[in-house]
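We now fix the convention by which a protein and its fold are recorded. The integers have meaning only within a learned vocabulary of local backbone shapes. A record is reproduced here so that you can trace the correspondence yourselves:
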Amino acid sequence: MAYAHKTCSNPDRTLMVLISDLDETSDEVTFMREAARVASTFNRFLTILALTKEGKGHWNVENANKFTELGIVCAASTPEQFPELCAREIVLSRSGS
């Protein structure tokens, strides 16, 4: 997230997509602080918690709930649904929702 935040030249027109189970960090405080910073900077922020054939998986529910509280959309998806999720977020960003 920090790399995307640092290198994106136009975050107010960008959909940030993070594919993660939100369970790979040892420094949760810094991780959540960075998520809040990115969520407040980027136009939209979509987290794909699982990208599997079944659209199911295991993820850190507590962190997913915290992301949702920050206004970050969290979803599990199949590969076929993934483009639709991204398209929906782009449409919502244009409508100001």
